């Protein structure tokens, strides 16, 4: 069976079409690439000659988002990069117990540190190594009830 003119033209343009699609994809992916920080003039917290791996529960992230760039802008911190991982405290503790790199951990409850003691990652006397038994905060619970409700 003889090939029609339209079929031959389509066959001729097929390789060109593939090349064009690949080139457009490469250009599109290149355009998506951003800088090392999302803020113009911001401090790139991931680069540095020395590196700190921070694994923490999610609640203090806004504080770290302020403190880390401020530290990076000092002479002591300008050459230190940070990798950060945030999530539920127990999940983060289990990650570190599975040997995810962590130089600094910040968990919400003591049992999450105890897990690391059991795994041999943290010294058993970790609380005695810092003022206030390594407990920088406490929790206060307030219950409000109607008048007359014991």
From TrEMBL:
Q: Name one GO biological process term.
A: sulfate transmembrane transport
Instruction: Give a yes or no for keyword Transmembrane in this entry.
Output: yes
Instruction: Read off the InterPro entries from this record.
Output: Thiosulph/SO4-bd
For this UniProt entry, which segments traverse the membrane?
Answer: 12-31
Q: Does the keyword Membrane apply?
A: yes
Compartments (UniProt record):
Periplasm
A molecular function (GO) held by this record is: molecular carrier activity
Domain of life where this protein originates: Bacteria
Q: Name one GO cellular component term.
A: periplasmic space
By its UniProt entry, which Pfam families does this protein fall under? SBP_bac_11 (PF13531)
Keywords from the UniProt entry: Membrane, Periplasm, Signal, Transmembrane, Transmembrane helix, Transport
Question: Of which family is this protein a member?
Answer: Belongs to the prokaryotic sulfate-binding protein family.
- What protein is this chain from? Sulfate ABC transporter substrate-binding protein
